[in-house]
Specification:
By secondary structure, the protein is mainly alpha-helical. The protein has one domain: Butyryl-Coa Dehydrogenase, subunit A, domain 1, CATH 1.10.540.10. It is built from four helices and two strands; from the N terminus they run ααααββ. The longest helix is centred in the middle third of the chain and has 18 residues. The protein is flat.
């Protein structure tokens, strides 16, 4: 998904700052949120609960949790 020039992020052209890997990660997370999170939001709001543990496990399996920085004493 490319950010529209009419959107706030399109206006500042943040997509140009992303590597191919960053775009792939962003798109994977967007697809996950569209298919798994958005359909459940109203129910979670009404029940005043969120399945945080399950969401964390699923996001972890996508590889988007944890520190990915290298150098500066970071684990990588």
């Amino acid at each position: 998904m490319v950010t529209s020039p009419q959107s706030p992020l399109g206006f500042v052209n943040t997509d140009s700052l992303l590597s191919e890997e960053d775009v792939a990660i962003r798109d994977t997370v967007r697809k996950y949120v569209e298919s798994k999170v958005k359909p459940q939001l109203a129910g979670w709001y009404e029940s005043a609960s969120i399945p945080a543990r399950e969401l964390a496990k699923e996001l972890g399996s996508l590889g988007v949790l944890g520190m990915h920085l290298e150098g500066y004493g970071c684990a990588g």
